Amino acid sequence: MGSKSLPLDGIRVIAVEQYIAGPYCTMLMADAGAEVIKIERPGEGDPRRGMSPMMKDNKGNKVSAGFIEFNRNKKSLTLNIRDDKGKEILKKLVNNSDILVENFRPGVMDKLGVGYEVLKEINPGLVYVAISGFGQLEEYRGPYWERPAFDIVAEAMSGYMHMIGHADEPPQQSIYGLADLTTAIFAYGGVMTGLVSRLRTGTGRYVDISMYDAMVALNERATMIYSFTGEAPHRGPETLYAPRGSFKTSNGYIVLNIPSDYMWERLTKAIGSENLAKDERFIDGISRAANQEKHFRPIIEKWLEDKTKEEAVKIFLANDVPAGEVQTSKDIDQCPHLRERKSLVEVDHPVTGIKRLVASPLKFSEMPRMDTAEIPELGQHTEEILRSLGYTEGDISFLRESQTI
User: Fold this and answer.
1) Roughly how many angstroms between the first and final C-alpha of the chain, as a whole number?
2) Which among 202, 193, 289, 194 has a CA at the least distance from the CA of 238?
3) Per residue in 7-49, pLDDT tens?
4) Domains, the chain, ranges and CATH?
5) Which of 127, 271, 329, 375 is the most buried (most CB within 10 A)?
6) pLDDT tens digits, 224-250
């Protein structure tokens, strides 16, 4: 058995990123061992450094919890890439890197003279990942390609928001940042696909990731149903099978998902109402969906009245019925399963001290465990990185005076 190592040891990533989608994608790579160099504006940094919630220590020092959330295990290089000397530094970095991830507005990198067509001449093996609201690869450009976008815009336009909430109420947004995180995960897959392609061909790829595309992919079931039936699904109760949803117990809620007849039989046995399995009103998924709210939800919740959510889930699982507790963030923080999975990581910062955050969901065999992680201060690694590129102390002083770094 070989020594433990991180899967992306030796891979260098240039992160020209801000807010969530780019930073979360590159953080996953940093957690897997890649050297991620985060390019930040001198004096300002990633706009997320100034976003709430802001944490403060007793000396008045402040840090954004949202920035900490998406930027662990990275190096921070302050660099003005609008400046010619800044462009030169970026190009030197690209020459010795494997991946560049950027999530600026479409066309910005090209206008600055550091887009893919320029950088691939410097490093033909570069995997260049462009994250945007609506995509920008020329042969796939739609009429929206230059639009700016935040997560809620992609969520709305993709039809995902149309599916959330009650049928007689306005559409509801889901959790904050869902579209960013979904897009970042697709981007991570695009990076890995690009690296495999480079191994085979020796040349890199331009990877075009759109938030709109990513959310449409997440909402694929609605598109499938419309394509096959001609009916557009609408928010509200499930119409194809039931039970599905949350059910009240004595101390909170559980969820049930019963997509098949044999699971329905198991559920009726679990609650001591086997006669429901033969009731014509509940004979198949569509029938159960039509009769859930009026007829058998009251039966299930009556059975749940004197049971805690933990007791109910235990009974259902003993009968091979898929069920789970509806948990809060406090429950997640204290979850014994997540602790054993090492799914939470401690992040240390001088202002906040040690805090727990969600770790990468990717687990690999023979990989050392990440128990703690550090957050880069703005420009913390600038001099270190420049020296590695051959810049002298005099060069660095000049670059600082000219506000290139």
Assistant:
1) 45
2) 289
3) 999 999 999 999 999 999 999 999 999 999 999 999 999 999 9
4) 12-219+342-401 (3.40.50.10540), 244-330 (3.30.1540.10)
5) 127
6) 999 999 989 888 788 888 899 999 999
